UniProtKB/TrEMBL annotation:
Gene Ontology MF: a single term: hexosyltransferase activity
PANTHER family: UDP-N-ACETYLGLUCOSAMINE TRANSFERASE SUBUNIT ALG13
Protein name: Glycosyl transferase family 28 C-terminal domain-containing protein
SUPFAM superfamilies named among the record's database cross-references: UDP-Glycosyltransferase/glycogen phosphorylase (SSF53756)
GO biological process: dolichol-linked oligosaccharide biosynthetic process
Species for this entry: Vanilla planifolia (Vanilla)
Glycosyl transferase family 28 C-terminal domain ranges (all copies): 14-163
Lineage: Eukaryota, Viridiplantae, Streptophyta, Embryophyta, Tracheophyta
GO annotation, cellular component aspect: UDP-N-acetylglucosamine transferase complex
Gene3D superfamilies for the chain: Glycogen Phosphorylase B
Amino acid sequence: MSCVAMEEERVKKVVFVTVGTTCFDALVKSVDSQNVRDELWKRGYTDLLIQMGRGCYIPSKISEEACSLNVDFFTFSPSIADYLRSASLVISHAGSGSIFETLRLGKPLIVVVNEDLMDNHQSELAEELAERKHLFCATPQTLHQTIEAMDSSSLIPYQPGDAMRVAMEINKFLGFPAE
């Protein structure tokens, strides 16, 4: 079967990559690598959309392979909510906003930790949520292996906590009447 026929048969499955407002060229380069693109294609993904933030590295829209992902990119958007909603897979930096917004939508998520950051508290969050099986965790160097090994059915949906009890305790401590 030709690549054109394969592409026409495929259901559109978008991988959305976000680095937030930072510069995380290592992540953009990693998803732009041929082995990551090939692995995503093998898993049935059709499109790769990269939000590249303040980075300098420009991903290639052209692939070396005949059968390949459709690739596009942009720097910033007022909101990435629509991109997250339409994604079949999200690959994100370890920013808590991006992580929790994706988890609330129930999307499979690979969080890529930026090891170049000093005192990287973000990696602690990503590793804890990966340990709880809410997401997959990788580095730019291990992204290909993470995609290759991931099984989205093994993920446990994230259930946001109920902050009402905490608010009631704070109100009680401050002397506000109970409702």
